[in-house]
């Protein structure tokens, strides 16, 4: 279900899964509000717009490839980053393993 908030397209987890199944790759910003994840294209969406002025529980970037879900960075505009729940919930939600490129070094 695509929604528009502040002229930004907000994607649900199902929208992201559909896009990844077609493109095999995606880079998104996300926020978690009231336990729900909202995603937007990392190059075109602002974390603040994704939050729609609601209190944010966590926010960061998510890089999705065939290797899995990699959570990166934090939101400078909201001054909040990912929390420990995101490392468990996002991979489950997106049906991919958690991937940490730094674990391979």
3D architecture notes:
The structure is a single chain. The protein is α+β, with helices and mostly antiparallel strands and 105 residues long. The protein has one domain (3-97). The chain has three helices and six strands; from the N terminus they run E-E-H-E-E-H-E-E-H. Strands 4-3-5-6 form a four-stranded antiparallel sheet. A two-stranded antiparallel ribbon has the order 1-2. The protein starts with a strand and ends in an 11-residue tail after the last helix. The mean pLDDT is 87.
Short description:
The protein is an alpha+beta fold.
Q: Can you give keywords for this protein?
A:
alpha+beta, 31% strand, globular, four-stranded antiparallel beta sheet, two-stranded antiparallel sheet, 105 residues
Question: Topology, pairings included?
Answer:
Elements: E1 3-5, E2 8-10, H1 13-23, E3 26-33, E4 36-41, H2 47-51, E5 58-65, E6 68-72, H3 84-94
Antiparallel strand pairs: 1-2, 3-4, 3-5, 5-6
Strand order of the largest sheet: 4-3-5-6
Q: Please trace the helix and strand order, writing H or E for each element.
A: EEHEEHEEH
Query: Could you tell me how far the N terminus lies from the C terminus, measured between alpha carbons in angstroms?
Result: 39 Å
- Rg estimate, integer Å: 13 Å
Helical content class: 25-40%
Class by alpha and beta content: alpha+beta
Count up the helices: 3
What integer is the average pLDDT?
87
Count structural domains. Answer: 1
Count of beta strands: 6
Query: The biggest beta sheet, please?
Result: 4 strands, antiparallel
User: Which shape, going by the Cα principal axes?
Assistant: globular
